[in-house]
Request: fold
Amino acid sequence: MKAFYGDLKLGILGGGQLGRMLIQQAINYNVNIKVLDPDREAPCRKLCDEFTVGSLGDYETVYKFGKTVDMLTIEIEKVNVDALDQLESEGVLVYPQSRIIRLIQDKGLQKQFFKENDIPTAPFQVISSPEELRESHIPFPYIQKLRRDGYDGKGVYKVIDESYLDNAFKEPSLIEEWVDFEKEIAVIVARNDDGDISTFPVVEMEFNPKANLVEFLISPSTLHFDIQVRAEAIAKKIAESLKIVGLLAVEMFLDKQGNILVNEVAPRPHNSGHQTIEGNTVSQFEQHLRAIFNQPLGDTKNLNHAIMVNLLGEDGYEGPAQYQGLEEVMKHAGVYVHLYGKLLTKPLRKMGHVTIVDADREKAIETAKFVQATLKVVS
Reply:
């Protein structure tokens, strides 16, 4: 492996904020970074060694890009997996492996994987047509998810009763029982090619009800120790079952009876791990690099209480981004602002995040609420 000597060429499929933060860490390891993204103004464009504009879904584009690097990784799952299969057969290292990306791309296959490997998850049914939906055995209310191409809350529809079926998705989907949950939690787990596995401590998440994406994250969790141990064990079991190389984010529900049910997984750095940059000994981005380079995994312990707030584009604004309240929030100690370099804002678009760290958990939460109320992305 050429890692850390300046001659390793790492390709990243996707040039968004996850790739941007991965590059910021990879610079410390002398890694040559090449990025492929369809948007010529993508957040990674000025940070990488070489930026290529092209479709992530096109076989030839992904294949040709992959032939110019030693290793490929992803920051988005919506990529051409057939090209990755071929590249792997020709000796290019692809982490996470193409078979895992193919599995994750299809939420139906992902759920079947959970079932076959005794991973606790909500009861579900795979649906291929509106007729099958109407004949479903899952009781109302339930959640319908498109099998493919859903992300950040898109492709998700709550079916409360029969009157909601007319507006349900017509495409292949899955439906799963509505979980009356107490908390939404997440665990990020890493595995290297030697089979070493390490988890980050459990975090608690609060979602934006309109956008259905993480808006507020609290680390570490204060849930009972037994719950945290079970959640981390589930994440490790999934990583071991997949034999993944790289990072895996595992989103889970804690229901009112104390059961933990896996919602979804993502084989890459994830929004539920951004606070690790300032809040943990090793960040999720460094851990992903350590895993794919088959290096010793880092110490994941919490350094402090850390609260992460997503910066979303404000309703009613679309155009060149402006950040109101930036100076006010930066006056506070322990406030770390991360802007993603996106030129244009629109309602609910992820434009950045802020991490607040403090030895006092309640004070950290109070400051986070101030940041959330003060820092606005407008145009």
The chain has four domains: 9-94, 123-177, 179-303, 304-379.
